[in-house]
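Long-time lurker. I teach an intro course on protein structure, and each term I like to show students one example going from raw sequence to a predicted 3D structure in token notation. This year I'd like something fresh instead of my usual example. Would anyone be willing to generate the tokens for the chain below so I can use it in lecture? Attribution to the forum is fine with me.
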Amino acid sequence: MKKTALFAIAALIVAPASIFAGHNSNVDPTVMTVGGRDVRLSEFEYLYKKNNAQLSADMTLDAYIDMFVNYKLKVCAAMDAGIDTMASYRRDMAMYADELAAPYMIDREMTDSLVAAAYSHCQSVLSIRHLLLPSKTDLRDEVAQRAFADSLRSAAVAGADFEAMIREYSVDPSAKRLSGRMMLSGMFSPYEFEDMANRTAPGEFSPVFATRFGLHLIRVDECIKNPGEIKTRHILKRFAPGDSIQAAKALAAVDSLRGVILSGADFASVASAETDDPSGRQTGGDLPWFGLGRMVSEFEEAAYSLSDGELSVPVRTDFGYHLILREASRQVLPLDSVRENLEQGIMRDGRSELVARRAVDRYAAQSNSRINDKTTKKVRGVLEKCKGLNDRSRQKIAGLKDAAFVVDGVGVAPAEIMPAIAADCNSVDSAMLLYVSAVDARFVAVAGERMRATLADREPGYRNLYNEYSDGMLLYEISNSKVWDRANVDVEGLEAYFQNHRDDYKWDCPHYKGYVVSAESDSIASAAADYLSGLDVDASAYVTELRKRFGTTAKIERVITAKGASPIVDYIAFGGDMPEAGDRWKAFRPFRGEVAEQPASAMDVKGAVGVDYQQYLEDQWLRELHEKYSVNVDRELIKSRL
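-- Reply from a regular --
Happy to contribute to a lecture. Here you go:
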């Protein structure tokens, strides 16, 4: 049984930790003790009500209690076997814990706000002009680059030709050809770029701003309502740049194909045969849904000017001449359809730090966690007396007794902060900035670690999911060891079980037990059977040996098949008619087979016996667990409270 399947089972019977904050014996009494481990009413009630809709209609509360007890016994056995201390278990649970904790380590309210802001960008399309300057690695060069960018902005605002500036200075690939023109819609650009453009009014310039790509300056020319996306196919005919003869031939070819399609030919079929786009030959010219700003402008403008189902005239781009069929269109997708993508975008860029910090601040407000303003003031006093950050002030600050900050009542002293501040400086204000930044970073780290460590105590949803995964893994490992894997490898036990229950596995008709040789002709079938008869090898080598000698012209299979179940077996073993020849196999021979009236061993009915033997092992194991562990259940209390 697969581990994922087991988790589905465990969801029905796993009992997460109590959903109540406390364990008052009157409010949340113990309803059972299994193997010395108490189960409180809240734990049992939570799971019973959660799974009530999934339980079979005829399952009584007593039957559910019995199932619950059996599950708890298996968990006890797993823990006593030390499975929860295994490296593989700890590694897997650490991975699951991180995944399960992630939604609780961000601020949901702020995330929703950022999602709403990002989705609002999808409602419009901006026509912008964009100037990009490269970043500099040296700090002084970067300061000079920023100053240069600011001077360009000042000149543009004063009326200088911004498009000329773009063509001269911008390293954006579109600078020379399009003078920096871009169509911008939500979700398809780095968010900081997208957000700045959307915060800039039409006709205005953005401030100079930085991303990982460099320094940017944007002018927003127009803001229009997003017309949505369109679905197209295209046929492309390429020509070498500057070659007017090839261009004329490409135009003539596209124009000719347009006539063929207008006469009734299928566009996809024509595209597969004629397009110069390699992927288009495989897809019939199919292109994915796209919106404004995602195709070269000439192609985009032509496609959006069409109606659904309309065919374009030849359209020239830098790639060649295109023939475009607009197949369909759709409006901007609803928020629910793109929410997951928007949230993933948030977690990939700088916004992830915002939602994580807001979550830490929320936790700090709820716990005894704060930065100590009194200590911050003392640090400033030391810096003023020592005239900045130097060896003398470092020693005095490290010696301060008051905590720099407190998390959950535990203080962190300035002495632990100072090693993170590498630079010295004579300016008190600059030194304070270094100290405050270092304290803030350490506070966020420590509070975040504490927030993560206390999730199970504070968040019932996380606790329940964690316990479900943990107990599910314990159940899988112990059940695999005691039942599932054992049933597969215990050949002697399986055979003994079969011999003791032979009457349960009787056949109602004879079976052929042995091999079937299939071949492309009678002569090959006979030769293959004779060849195998002369071999002195184990039966497990038949397939390999036959392939060595006959390649793919013959094959051999082990079967146990009832009379009437297979035309081939009926032919070779029960006197049936020759089966109709298939596309490949035309001749068949029995090999080392026999007709049996009844199964002789467990291997003859392995599937059915294996299932029953697993259940036998399960029942036997549960009897042992009930003998090993004490179980006390207050059924009357459970029934009175449910």
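Some talking points for your students: The chain has a mean pLDDT of 90. Residues 460-489 form the longest helix (30 residues).
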